UniProtKB/TrEMBL annotation:
<dbReference type="Pfam" id="PF14656">
    <property type="entry name" value="RAB3GAP2_C"/>
</dbReference>
<dbReference type="GO" id="GO:0005096">
    <property type="term" value="F:GTPase activator activity"/>
</dbReference>
<feature type="domain" description="Rab3-GAP regulatory subunit N-terminal">
    <location>
        <begin position="34"/>
        <end position="444"/>
    </location>
</feature>
<dbReference type="InterPro" id="IPR026059">
    <property type="entry name" value="Rab3GAP2"/>
</dbReference>
<keyword id="KW-0343">GTPase activation</keyword>
<dbReference type="InterPro" id="IPR032839">
    <property type="entry name" value="RAB3GAP_N"/>
</dbReference>
<comment type="similarity">
    <text>Belongs to the Rab3-GAP regulatory subunit family.</text>
</comment>
<protein>
    <submittedName>
        <fullName>RAB3 GTPase activating protein subunit 2 (non-catalytic)</fullName>
    </submittedName>
</protein>
<feature type="region of interest" description="Disordered">
    <location>
        <begin position="1"/>
        <end position="30"/>
    </location>
</feature>
<feature type="domain" description="Rab3GAP regulatory subunit C-terminal">
    <location>
        <begin position="671"/>
        <end position="1089"/>
    </location>
</feature>
<dbReference type="InterPro" id="IPR029257">
    <property type="entry name" value="RAB3GAP2_C"/>
</dbReference>
<keyword id="KW-0963">Cytoplasm</keyword>
<dbReference type="Pfam" id="PF14655">
    <property type="entry name" value="RAB3GAP2_N"/>
</dbReference>
<dbReference type="GO" id="GO:0005737">
    <property type="term" value="C:cytoplasm"/>
</dbReference>
């Protein structure tokens, strides 16, 4: 679409800024003036267009397509066509498209789906069929929620309004959208189940009978408004006379504006609460003809397949029509000859545009109910509104920058008779734009939005099939007096011609696809042209730009050509070879574990060529003629470094020539050093693959850069620290790429040593080796980097599958020093947690670091063996920082921290306690257990105790989760750990006096650690605990643990006296009043009265009851009163027999016959038995037979029930022979 005439049209007024308007061209392939007779509606998201005429409709949805030139463009393609009407003679009279926002959290702001609402002349409104009134539907309108911009503005909520000739139906938006979603979900479910049965939810709506107006053709629902006190008093006096009473608070009212005739415009006000919403059961549309690509049942649209009989049945049965609530007109604008045709409400709900049959467009002030402006000569006009926010750039220079962001309002008028589209500033502003667009277009303005998406004004041209979007710059709303930009327009136009050549050059140099030869030729030509001009007329800035860009392009070309030449220089590796062979095995292991490359864009790859545009954007010519590298993003910095140095490091480019070229260009050696080290560290993986070759080339490059002017200061005294070498050192110290940093340190150490030696030779001419502070710092740095490399190799070992997650920790000298004295132990403890290394296993490994024989025996353990060797190697490099006590202490703390994050993982707390047990120093043990108790344990422990006290038994899972924050099984495990922790506390408190506190030390090279104190240091600072108080808590913990383990019914805290209760959950370091410890005399006497034989007999009966006969026989031997036991067991035997003969599910014929043969006394006795008391009724017959035999042995012959026992024996033997 050629925008030239539109762009020039913005300039039609005086002092208007020339502004290009954006547009979307979306081909629809329509032609002719027929469009004026159609009902057309466009979704506010511009992704669905509905065109309907009489009973037919076409739906067009947005699709991307590639045109002949390969350009992607948005088109509106036909997705469905067909007939919408289901009743005879009904036609489409109105339609709107409502996008429903997605409720998913991951939504990107696009609508979930778009509901098409269609009104018919029969009175039906179909998104589903809902008969709200029996007259034709005149107009459908929607209002969506918008956040109020100013205090005092009433918040407006969503609403769908439907206009009939004498009634207005309003549906609450929230209720409607919930119903639509529910219907759509039901359709999807019904389609999936192959069913047609759908039960839509009821829909709430209000229905107003609009009175005192002859004809109504259009309406606007303005929303809820509240009158000011003056207007409230005015209305009260007009309606009620002089003595009218005024309510204390003004009532909230919904305002409706109608247009038509008699009067020409009507203002209606419905007081909130004056009408109850009507509930109607939604009659579903039988739209079987709509099942197509867009309306397939699977996509959850409104096409539901039903057979013919059901269609006829639904059509015959007319829904009930609710009566309307009468609503009288408050006032109107009477004009007997004028008839309104349409009304269009502004987005701010303050103004409305009205068109009439006299060809006028009238602007209404809705708050005051008056006409404030009128345009004439716009017959059949179509209206739209645009609300434009102030650009952010304008705010900075505006005098009102501190105030809220301003918005400008514009009225868009399309006059089809003249084929012109005009933009007018509100309220009394000038026309700011006019465009010739053709006479058969349709202006599409929804007037509502998907929340957060501005409602667009679009123009649909049926001749060309183009859909154009109108965009208006904010500053056009400013009058000439206030607009600084309008005053500067003439000056801007004069500047434009001057700047055009500069802009052209800059945009060309910023082009990513332009080849370097093309850029050089054009810049050179422009430079020559400028040179030939009169020196006074030449733009010196442009000449300088050409000169600097030519210099940069030449540098780019030279380096590109050098990289294509072969590298020849070779350097010896003397002095570094020993270092390389020493750390070689560690480097190999490190290379195995380095992370695999992740997914990245091709253009971000370090191997992708650097385009000239990227090179130019990072270089800047200073006034002195030198080049300065601008550090922008990390990716661009890496790409520039790769371009300059990677070829040299690989040995593909001549190193000295590249360095000479860069030095001649005037780039500072410090910036070149930074770029070189960055490439070296970033491409660690490739460096390690060819370590000898790349190290040799790095050495050559480093020496070459050091020899540049301005690198190492000439006045440098070797006894002080050189800023040049300090730059290399600080880069290595901060790097997380341990291997590359160590190799760089080896090279820099050797180069610095050579530099210092030559410096000393030139000065001293002696055979003494120069001692230097610089070299001392390098020795420390290299040692630290070797330590970091071994530690990082261990941390990179991947955990076994299924172990606790978390990314491998990245460490550098800087992070370890900032982590404090416990930083190293903390890193290893996190590794232990990630690998789920059991405390006993860790103890074994730490013991083996001195035990060489054990190491040799465990020769072939694969990965586990590698892990063990790495851990031992790390511990040997950090003998003080990773002493066993420190490591166990940190592991204990790591596990308890992880348990606190996820208390359901009881194993974490168990392992924390196990690690704590392995700490040999009672001082550290005491401090850590006291810290664990106060920080993590006591709060949950007290919650568990109070919960058990409250319910009087072991609480269920739900209560445990609510009060303690974990399930019942986790609580049991937790209480067990509490018992162990308190026991450790008591043991360590007892042992503290016998042993002196340990002295914590750090390795010499790591003495500079600054940061938080280690866990062990904090533990040693803790105060001692009050032993009886710990013992008191331990007793409670044991009681709680037993209650949970055995599901006892007990109130634990009630077992203690008031002193005991008050002492609980106090700080363990404080001295509390404790209970005396003397046992209650009453309890002592009760215990003495208990006969142990009763308990033994009870235990025998319980074991038989559970079916554990063999264990019962063992306990029976200890029972003294056999007679009583015999009577108890006789009943139990009777219950077993009663179950097998009378209560068993599978009663056999033999059992029935046996019952008939038994003596009547035995039968009666068996029937009186209750087998339900047995915990295990299904006991093998052989066990019961053995029990009866025992009975005969126990009972004396003169016992009253001896004969009954004999009868039982006969019955059991008879049953056994039957089986």
């Amino acid at each position: 679409w050629d925008t030239s005439d539109w762009e020039s049209a913005w300039d039609s007024g005086d002092n208007k800024e020339e502004e290009a308007t954006s547009a979307e061209e979306e081909t629809t392939g329509k032609s002719g003036p027929w469009l004026q007779d159609c009902v057309v509606s466009l979704s506010p998201c511009s992704d669905l267009l509905v065109v309907a005429r009489e009973h037919k409709a076409v739906f067009l949805s947005a699709k991307w397509r590639t045109d002949d030139s390969g350009r992607e463009e948005m088109t509106l393609a036909v997705s469905w066509t067909g007939t919408l009407s289901t009743e005879e003679g009904e036609c489409v009279s109105s339609s709107i498209c409502i996008p429903l926002a997605s409720q998913k959290r991951s939504s990107t702001g696009r609508p979930d789906w778009t509901c098409v609402v269609v009104g018919f002349t029969s009175g039906h409104v179909r998104f589903y069929t809902e008969l709200l009134h029996e007259d034709p539907v005149l107009r459908l309108k929607c209002r969506t929620y918008e956040i109020p911009r100013h205090p005092g503005v009433t918040e407006q909520h969503e609403e769908l309004s439907i206009l009939y000739p004498a009634a207005l139906v309003t549906i609450d938006g929230f209720s409607l959208f919930q119903s639509l979603r529910a219907c759509r979900n039901q359709v999807a479910r019904a389609a999936a189940a192959g069913s047609d049965v759908i039960q839509p939810p009821p829909l709430a709506y209000k229905k107003w009978g609009l009175q005192d107006m002859d004809t109504i053709v259009d309406h606007s629902s303005v929303g809820v408004m509240t009158l000011c006190v003056f207007d409230q008093m005015k209305n009260a006096s007009i309606l009620g006379g002089f003595n009218a009473s005024v309510k204390g608070s003004p009532p909230a009212m919904s305002q409706y504006i109608t247009v038509g005739g008699g009067p020409y415009t009507g203002f209606y006000y419905a007081v909130e609460g004056s009408s109850q919403p009507l509930l109607s059961h939604v009659a579903l549309a039988v739209a079987s003809k709509l099942t197509s690509a867009l309306f397939s049942a699977a996509s959850g649209w409104l096409g539901w397949n039903k057979n013919k009989h059901e269609e006829e049945a639904v059509q015959k049965q007319k829904p009930k029509v609710e009566p309307a609530t009468p609503l009288g007109i408050r006032f109107g604008l009477p004009d007997s000859r004028r008839h309104g045709e349409s009304i269009c409400l502004s987005p701010c709900n303050i103004l409305a545009g009205v068109t009439d049959d006299f060809g006028r467009v009238t602007l209404l002030d809705l708050a005051r109910g008056i006409t404030i402006r009128m345009w004439k000569g716009y017959r059949d006009a179509q209206l739209g509104w645009l609300q434009v926010p102030e650009e952010r750039g304008d705010r900075e220079f505006s005098p009102s920058a501190s105030l809220p962001r301003r918005h400008a309002l514009f009225l868009v008028i399309y006059a089809p008779r003249r084929g012109i589209l005009e933009i007018w500033a509100m309220q009394q502003g000038p026309r700011v734009g006019a465009f010739t667009v053709g006479k058969h277009c349709r202006l599409l303005y929804a007037g509502y939005r998907l929340m957060g998406v501005n409602s667009q004004v679009c123009l649909l041209d049926p001749i060309t099939g183009a859909l154009r979007t109108v965009n208006i710059p904010f500053h056009l709303a400013l009058s000439d007096k206030k607009s600084e930009r309008a005053k500067d327009m003439h000056l801007l136009k004069r500047l434009t011609t001057l700047l055009r050549s500069r802009e052209a050059l800059e945009s060309l140099l910023a082009n990513k696809n332009a080849p370097v030869s093309c850029l050089t030729n054009i810049t050179c030509t422009l430079y020559d042209t400028l040179k030939q001009q009169d020196p006074e007329e030449v733009d010196t800035d442009l000449l300088q730009l050409c000169s600097s860009q030519l210099k940069l392009l030449q540098l780019y070309t030279d380096i590109q050509q050098l990289h294509s030449a072969a590298g020849t220089e070779q350097d010896s590796l003397e002095g570094i070879k020993d270092d390389l062979s020493r750390v070689g095995p560690t480097l190999q292991r490190y290379a195995q574990f380095t992370p695999r490359p992740s997914v990245s864009f091709v253009q971000d790859s370090p191997d992708s060529p650097l385009p000239p545009q990227a090179f130019l954007s990072q270089m800047e010519c200073t006034e002195s003629g030198e080049l300065k590298v601008i550090r922008r993003s990390e990716t661009e910095w890496n790409q520039l470094g790769n371009f300059l140095f990677w070829g040299c490091l690989c040995g593909k480019s001549p190193l000295h020539k590249v360095c000479d070229t860069l030095q001649q260009a005037g780039i500072s050696p410090q910036q070149l050093l930074s770029l070189l080290l960055n490439v070296w560290l970033q491409r660690e993986k490739e460096v390690l693959q060819k370590s000898e070759e790349t190290v040799r080339n790095l050495h050559t490059l480093l020496i070459a850069l050091s020899n540049m002017k301005g690198a190492v200061e000439e006045s440098w005294d070797p006894q002080s620290v050189s800023p040049w070498w300090q730059q290399v050192r600080s880069t290595c110290i901060q790097s997380h790429n341990a291997a590359a940093a160590l190799l760089a340190a080896f090279v820099a150490h050797r180069a610095a040593k050579a530099s210092i030696t030559s410096h000393a030779d030139s000065k001293l001419q002696s055979e003494w080796e120069a001692v230097s502070l610089e070299l001392e710092q390098w020795v420390v740095c290299v040692r630290q980097l070797e330590d970091v490399l071994v530690l990082q190799t261990l941390l990179l070992v991947p955990p076994p599958q299924g172990a606790a997650g978390g990314a491998a920790a990245q460490c550098s000298i800087k992070t370890l020093l900032e982590g404090g004295t416990g930083g190293i132990a903390d890193s290893v403890s996190k590794w232990v947690f990630r690998h789920s290394l059991a405390p006993e296993r860790l103890k074994e490994i730490l013991q083996k670091r001195e035990d060489k024989e054990a190491e040799q025996k465990a020769g072939g353990e694969g990965n586990d063996e590698k892990q063990q060797k790495l851990l031992v190697a790390v511990c040997q490099r950090f003998p003080h920082s990773l002493s066993p006590d420190l490591l166990f202490a940190h592991c204990c703390w790591e596990y308890v921290v992880q348990w606190n994050k996820d208390p359901e993982e009881g194993q974490y707390l168990c392992w924390a306690v196990e690690h704590l047990k392995l700490v040999s120093s009672p001082h550290i043990q005491l401090g850590i257990s006291a810290m664990m108790w106060s920080t993590f344990i006591v709060k949950r422990f007290s919650a568990a105790a109070f919960l058990m006290e409250k319910v009087g038994k072991a609480p269920k899972d739900r209560l445990c989760r609510r009060d303690v924050g974990m399930g019942d099984k986790a609580v049991t495990s937790f209480l067990g750990c509490c018992v162990q922790l308190l026991q450790i506390l008591m043991e360590s408190d007892s042992a503290v006096e016998e042993v002196s506190a340990p002295e914590l030390s750090v390795e010499e090279v790591w003495c500079g650690a600054e940061g938080p104190a280690s866990i062990a240091e904090l533990a040693l600072e803790q105060r001692g605990v009050h032993y009886p108080l710990v013992q008191h808590h331990c007793l409670l913990a044991s009681l709680l643990h037993a209650t949970m383990t055995f599901s006892l019914k007990v109130k634990p805290l009630s077992l203690f006296d008031s002193k005991g209760k008050n002492a609980f959950f106090r700080d363990l370091t404080t001295i509390q009043l404790m209970p005396s410890g003397d046992m209650d005399p009453g309890l002592v006497s009760l215990r003495q009265e208990v006969n142990p034989d009763i308990l033994r007999r009870h235990l025998v009966c319980e074991l038989y009851n559970q079916g554990l006969d063999l264990r019962a026989e063992e306990v029976m031997l200890e029972v003294e009163d056999k007679d009583v036991l015999g009577s108890q067991l006789l009943v139990l035997t009777g219950q077993r027999l009663s179950y097998s003969l009378l209560h068993s599910q599978s009663q056999t014929q033999a059992a029935m016959e046996l019952l008939a043969r038994l003596p009547p006394t035995l039968c009666t006795w068996l029937k009186a038995m209750d087998p339900s008391e047995l915990r295990c009724p299904l006991v093998p017959l052989s066990q019961t037979s053995r029990l009866v035999s025992r009975l005969i042995e126990i009972l004396p012959e003169n016992h009253a029930q001896y004969s009954l026992a004999l009868h039982l024996l006969e019955a059991v033997e008879a049953l056994t022979t039957e089986d």
